Amino acid sequence: MAPRDSAEPRPPPPPQGWVWPGKIVAVAMGALAGFWVLSLLTYSYLCWGQGLEEEGLLGAQAEERSEAGATGTTQPHLIFILADDQGFRDVGYHGSEIKTPTLDKLAAEGVKLENYYVQPICTPSRSQFITGKYQIHTGLQHSIIRPTQPNCLPLDNATLPQKLKEVGYSTHMVGKWHLGFYRKECMPTKRGFDTFFGSLLGSGDYYTHYKCDSPGMCGYDLYENDNAAWDYDNGIYSTQMYTQRVQQILASHDPAKPIFLYVAYQAVHSPLQAPGRYFEHYRSIININRRRYAAMLSCLDEAIHNVTLALKQYGFYNNSIIIYSSDNGGQPTAGGSNWPLRGSKGTYWEGGIRAVGFVHSPLLKNKGTVCKELVHITDWYPTLISLAEGQIDEDIQLDGYDIWETISEGLRSPRVDILHNIDPIYTKAINGSWAAGYGIWNTAIQSAIRVQHWKLLTGNPGYSDWVPPQAFSNLGPNRWHNERITLSTGKSIWLFNITADPYERVDLSSRYPGIVKKLLRRLSQFNKTAVPVRYPPKDPRSNPRLNGGVWGPWYKEENKKKKTNKTKAKENKQKRSKGRTRKQPAAHSSTKYHPSVTAG
Predict the structure, then answer these.
(1) Nearest to 502 by CA among 561, 453, 442
(2) Using CA atoms, how far apart are residues 37 and 31, in angstroms rounded to an integer?
(3) Residue 174, φ and ψ in degrees, nearest 5
């Protein structure tokens, strides 16, 4: 799709009776403050505060709110920003040609996470962040939750926002959900968020907010809380629209009370779309996908600049912790680069799972440092609950660790291993076998595990090329420039020392069979704790045509109750009939089959 121009609409007048909150500022600052607030409540694409020094020019009101926040809660404000499909190389401080001054500055002043792992695709990373559990412990081991599937994050998992609400946090989500919505109980507002503004699906048009999952399966995908946000169907680019909503939330919240903001941007996931003005610095990039991707990332960087300014303006910053993360590796065919790592999004090579990440906060003890300790996306769950002065139930088996002292003080990480995943459904490796796994593990199964310095992969780990920057020719990642790997016949197991060989160039599986066996046994131990896979078939009732043209919950609770009652009556009749001829054993539960517990 060609890049879309960002003609800036004329700001509408403020609503009648509108009043700037807080104390009256000096007359000299009044006009400037009014302009700022107006920019929040209109559809302007201007960079809020652009060209101004961050210190000293935000106005007297910002100082007053900062003072109020400083005397309020001891619980920190938690801001988790999740980018979508950002490649490992695609940040300035990793050597990218794409300009990310905000990310570079925040990371340089905070703690860069340079041994940080996520999952290779969208749903798994988001589910592990919000539950602190590996996929094998939520049933989401395979693929993503698709729009037509009667599936969602299991309702018996206590989510991060639910735990934060228990200790007084106001919880807000802005952006991409992608954890299922077939039942109302699966929606973000039923999973712990006070408010939700964003999309339910994994992708969609950045301007129209429409998504077609297949021919004839198209619908609108923008929500405010539990209802379609038709009032926002006015062509605003999602990155900027989400940022405006974050600014509005901060403007209306008391900084003396703790807040949790989960900002899950759609960018830089395909489709590759960006407002025209962000292309100005990238006309030298020949590959059109890379150029569009660069423009999208520049817009995202500016958005995070504006979020940071809002945190300062409204008195949150000094008591805030900002965490930035990508949800998985980049997709070279869609402009992303993971160089010098191997592989891409959707694979268990380092390019699919090693992510851009950092923590920025005035509360950090060791600022301006690099953390090379092992950190995983599941670790945010216990870490943030601990920072919030919350409690984790003793009977909850988490896979994450509290790593705040590791990040803030430079202590050793409590984490020594990561189960990247075990997917029993994924296409089996043709040459995999129990024999290849020394009778410990069937190497036909896709799996990956990290234990200290060692990483083991089995089965079919996915696209395995290294894609250098020069591969982005005019026609797309040109495989002539790629360092291509032809997997040798019979190969279904790999071993790497990631500390010594982070680019996975030297397979050590034949040299160290003892290490291979040790990691296979660890895989087997993890697999014994796995729950059945949840990956139900498509449900035709999910079609937006049946739901007013909107993607949204389609499983009706009242229909379930009616059907359940009919089922019970039928079963009781059958029991009475059979009881006349023979004695019956104890009756089984008459609960109606529920698609959410389907095991694949």
Answers:
(1) 453
(2) 10
(3) -130, 125
Spatial separation of the C-alpha atoms in residues 141 and 124, rounded to whole Å? 7
How far, in Å, CA of 85 to CA of 344, rounded? 10
Please report the pLDDT score of residue 600 as a whole number: 32
pLDDT at 136: 98
Bridge-partner residues for 257, per DSSP?
A: none
**Least confident among 138-147, 440-449, 553-562, 580-589:** 580-589
Structure tokens at 532: 């059945």
Residues 122 and 144 sit within 8 Å (Cβ to Cβ): yes
**pLDDT tens for residues 414-469?**
999 999 999 999 999 999 999 999 999 999 999 999 999 999 999 998 889 999 98
Joined tokens for residue 60 = 């007297």
Tokens describing residue 228: 């379609």
Burial (0-12, 13-18, 19+ Cβ within 10 Å), 338: buried
Name the active-site residue from 122, 152, 186, 371: 122
Alpha-carbon distance values, 34 to 14, 19, 76, 212, 255 (Å): 10, 10, 29, 41, 21
What is the token pair recorded at 365? 């003890």
Is 97 strand, coil or helix?
coil
Torsion, Cα 124 455 470 6, to 10 degrees, reads 20
Q: Which of 178, 253, 305, 420 is catalytic?
A: 178
Q: How far is CA 288 from CA 120, 269, 370, in A?
A: 25, 15, 34
The DSSP-derived string for 203-240 is ---TTT-EEEEETTEEEE--EETTEE-GGG-S---HHH
Please give the Cα distance from 182 to 543 (Å, whole number): 11
Nearest C-alpha neighbor of 47 from the set 244, 203, 317? 244
Cis peptide before 150 (omega within 30 of 0): no
pLDDT of residue 45: 36
Residue with the bigger pLDDT between 212 and 2: it is: 212
Active site residue 152: no
Residues 173 and 196 sit within 8 Å (Cβ to Cβ): yes
pLDDT at 593 over 70: no
Q: Strand, helix or coil at 29? A: helix
At residue 500, φ and ψ (nearest 5 deg) are -85, -25
State the average pLDDT over residues 160-165.
98
Annotation says 122 is catalytic:
yes
Burial class, 371, CB count within 10 angstroms (exposed 0-12 / middle 13-18 / buried 19+):
buried
* pLDDT score of 309 more than 90: yes
Residue with tokens 């705040």: 404
Q: Provide the CA 559 distance to its chain's centre, in angstroms.
A: 33
Is it the case that residue 238 has pLDDT exceeding 80? yes
Q: Which residues contact 517 (CB under 8 A, 6 or more apart)?
A: 438, 440
| Alpha-carbon separation of residue 116 from 24, 25, 60, 412, 514 (angstroms) | 46, 44, 39, 14, 27
Say which residue the tokens 């089922």 belong to.
567
Burial classification of residue 512, based on how many CB atoms lie within 10 Å of its CB (0-12 exposed, 13-18 middle, 19 or more buried): middle
